[in-house]
Amino acid sequence: MYDFYAFLDRMKYIRRWSLMRSSREENVMEHSWQVAVLAHALALIDGQICGNSPDVQKTVLYALYHECSEVMTGDLPTPIKYFNPEMRGAYRAIEERANEKLLTMLPEALAPAMCPLVSADTGSYEYALVKAADKLSAYIKCIEEVKAGNDEFRKAKEGIAAELAAKKMPCLDYFLENFLPAFFLSLDEMEGLD
């Protein structure tokens, strides 16, 4: 018996934004799906519009599995995770150990294929796209909360907007200019329902 996929299925129980009062809770499973969709969009824009050549499949798979370790560690709030370099390094080591443990829950024949996804190449361009998509997902969550009248996310929204602008990624800039404005609209304001 192998526990890997049953562990991943528990992502739906891990709440994000635990230090913030949310109008709608978000879990790690739905976040991972959203990051995968956004990373796919960034990779497509990067290739088709910006003229680069990221590995789209690798980008999406990195995104899909980018929070696997959290089924063992939980979602540590950002202010704690990045409190100082020592904390950041210690948490990174814990995440790596959790990923290694997860990989032992697969048959030997599957573990080598899953290892590069669960323990992604964090120095790759594709992983940089995933990190941008991850930040974009956080920004979209802030937009949704502020739209719902939850001022708790206002400061986070401003900070994340500045982080996104500082990334200087043409594909991200394109998404922010051409796709992000629709996230500020209500359903009735979107053109697709005309």
Account of the 3D structure:
The model has no long low-confidence stretch (mean pLDDT 93). The chain has 194 residues and is mainly alpha-helical. The chain contains ten helices and no strands. It is globular and about 50 Å long. α6 runs antiparallel to α7 (111-118). The termini are far apart. The chain has one domain: Hypothetical protein af1432 (Orthogonal Bundle), CATH 1.10.3210.10.
Task: Record the SSE blueprint.
Layout: H1 4-9, H2 28-48, H3 56-64, H4 70-73, H5 78-81, H6 85-103, H7 111-118, H8 125-147, H9 154-166, H10 170-178
Helix pairs in contact: 2-3, 2-8, 2-10, 3-8, 6-7, 8-9
Quick description:
By secondary structure, the protein is an all-alpha fold. It has ten helices and no strands. The model has no long low-confidence stretch (mean pLDDT 93).
The CATH architecture would be: Orthogonal Bundle
Name the beta content range: under 5%
Q: CATH superfamily, called what?
A: Hypothetical protein af1432
Radius of gyration: 17 Å
Shape: globular
Q: Give the mean pLDDT.
A: 93
Please write the string of helix (H) and strand (E) elements.
HHHHHHHHHH
For this structure, the CATH topology is Hypothetical protein af1432
Largest sheet: none
SS elements, strand count: 0
